[in-house]
């Protein structure tokens, strides 16, 4: 089981390491880890040395399913920022090409797998949870999109395994074996794995403290088949105990005037709330190791948000101590 850390190719991340990938390697080694999972899309993606790469996280487009299912609903004059970062592209064809280009890049970097979110959410649904699509519609649309994209590669298989990650919005949640089977049965290629994000699963399970979260995650995993558990080859290990916050801030109307804001202002309003909801905290309770013992993944990603190198170091060391690694 390899332990790795998350990092992006954006300047804001690399500047913590004196703009030096060699400095990143020293940090990774000092943390007792073996590599990084690179969030792609940054200015320095192409400069990262292959020896640092364990895996990559593909860009996450929250609105891509609508572009794929209902491209006619995407305004022709859509904000370019929203077109790129929310829908992922201007047309379904462009979306496929962008996705395939990212997979090719991931393979060129030598990634063991490339993470992709199977989810969709409209921005006002952050608040209302009254979703445009059901989880079944998101799962079937995702399979359709992925099948189309992978057909462009030799043998109909992607050049790097795609790691399907769970979220708590409609799509892949790992809340039932039924949803997993529904998705997998529609895939026409086999070069894929599952990536379990423990914090995302906690967000779907109304968790208010760490011990409760660990037990609820284990219960959810017990409802999955051995075949599914074997496909979970990577775990984003993080703790999120935002159940009370969700009750207080969601399942309600958006703030007055929200729908009239431009995309950038909507995201600026939402980002602090997402940070409160999806907390990316380190586990402190040693019982968290039961999750890894249940799955026995090839990779464990210490996936945390942080405002400094020192804060990230503290979080990694806290979690590794809980895992009895130090």
UniProtKB/TrEMBL annotation:
It holds the Pfam family AP_endonuc_2. Residues 88-315 form the Xylose isomerase-like TIM barrel domain. Gene3D superfamilies: Divalent-metal-dependent TIM barrel enzymes. InterPro entries: Xyl_isomerase-like_sf (IPR036237), Xyl_isomerase-like_TIM-brl (IPR013022). It comes from the Archaea. SUPFAM superfamilies: Xylose isomerase-like (SSF51658). This is Xylose isomerase-like TIM barrel domain-containing protein. It comes from Methanospirillum stamsii.
């Amino acid at each position: 089981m390899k332990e790795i850390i998350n990092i992006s190719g954006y300047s804001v991340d690399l500047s913590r390491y004196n703009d030096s990938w060699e400095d990143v390697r020293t940090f990774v080694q000092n943390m007792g880890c073996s590599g990084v999972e690179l969030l792609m899309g940054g200015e320095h993606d192409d400069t990262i040395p292959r020896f640092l790469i364990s895996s990559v996280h593909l860009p996450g487009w929250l609105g891509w399913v609508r572009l794929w299912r209902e491209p006619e609903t995407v305004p022709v004059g859509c904000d370019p920022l929203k077109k790129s970062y929310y829908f992922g592209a201007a047309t379904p064809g462009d979306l496929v090409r962008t996705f395939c280009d990212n997979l090719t890049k991931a393979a060129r970097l030598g990634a063991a797998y490339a993470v992709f979110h199977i989810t969709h959410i409209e921005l006002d649904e952050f608040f209302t949870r009254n979703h445009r699509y059901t989880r079944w519609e998101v799962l079937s649309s995702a399979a359709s999109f992925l099948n189309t994209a992978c057909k462009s590669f030799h043998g109909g298989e992607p050049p790097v395994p795609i790691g399907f990650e769970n979220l708590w919005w409609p799509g892949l949640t790992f809340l039932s074996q039924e949803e997993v089977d529904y998705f997998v049965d529609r895939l026409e290629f086999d070069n894929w794995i599952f990536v379990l994000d423990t914090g995302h699963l906690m967000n779907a399970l109304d968790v208010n403290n760490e011990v409760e979260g660990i037990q609820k995650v284990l219960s959810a995993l017990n409802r999955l088949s051995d075949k599914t558990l074997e496909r979970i080859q990577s775990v984003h290990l993080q703790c999120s105990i935002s159940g009370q916050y969700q009750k207080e801030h969601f399942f309600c109307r958006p703030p007055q005037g929200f729908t009239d804001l431009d995309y950038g202002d909507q995201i600026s309003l939402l980002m602090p709330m997402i940070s409160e909801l999806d907390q990316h905290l380190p586990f402190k309770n040693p019982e968290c190791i039961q999750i890894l013992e249940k799955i026995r993944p090839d990779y464990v990603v210490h996936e945390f948000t942080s405002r400094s190198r020192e804060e990230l170091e503290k979080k990694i060391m806290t979690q590794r101590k809980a895992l009895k690694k130090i």
